[in-house]
């Protein structure tokens, strides 16, 4: 239930804002910072390896942090600010909001079922 409420809350927030600054990490801890106007699509692109360059080369495919903005310039400025930070400060930011470095998009797009209900029956 908590996961379902969290996903509903996250999807509602995603509709209210238009721009996101995000941090994607690899399993080994390599960080990629980006900005987008569609976080769901961009994360799926990272996960599938569609985005060529640094993030695909280092297998950065786990969303560990994101911020939302209603102004594109604010999102761009925040992206630049985060990119200018030392690694230790980026890690502190991630761990403040996501101490276990969980993939915040792990269940995005997954089919939901109530307890005791098989997913195959849906």
**How many domains would you count in the coordinates?**
1
Please write the string of helix (H) and strand (E) elements: HEEHHEHH
Structural class: alpha+beta
Compute the gyration radius: what is it? 15 Å
CATH architecture: 3-Layer(aba) Sandwich
Number of helices: 5
Q: In the CATH scheme, what's the topology name? A: GIY-YIG endonuclease
Strand content: 15-25%
Tell how many strands the DSSP assignment holds.
Answer: 3
Principal-axes geometry comes out as globular
Largest sheet: 3 strands, antiparallel
The end-to-end span amounts to 18 Å
Q: Please give the CATH class.
A: Alpha Beta
Amount of helix? 40-55%
Low-pLDDT segments, ≥5 res: none
What is the arithmetic mean of pLDDT?
A: 86
The name of the CATH superfamily reads: GIY-YIG endonuclease
Spatially, the strands of the biggest sheet line up as: 2-1-3
């Amino acid at each position: 239930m908590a996961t379902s409420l969290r996903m509903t809350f996250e999807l509602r927030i995603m509709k209210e804002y238009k721009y996101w600054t995000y941090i994607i990490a690899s399993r080994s801890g390599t960080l990629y910072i980006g900005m987008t106007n569609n976080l769901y699509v961009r994360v799926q692109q990272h996960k599938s390896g569609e985005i060529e360059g640094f993030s695909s080369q280092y297998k950065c495919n786990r969303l560990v942090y994101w911020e939302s903005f209603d102004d594109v310039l604010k999102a761009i400025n925040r992206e630049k600010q985060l990119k200018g930070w030392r690694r230790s400060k980026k890690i502190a930011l991630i761990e403040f909001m996501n101490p276990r470095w969980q993939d915040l998009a792990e269940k995005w797009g997954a089919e939901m079922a109530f307890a005791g209900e098989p997913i195959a029956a849906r």
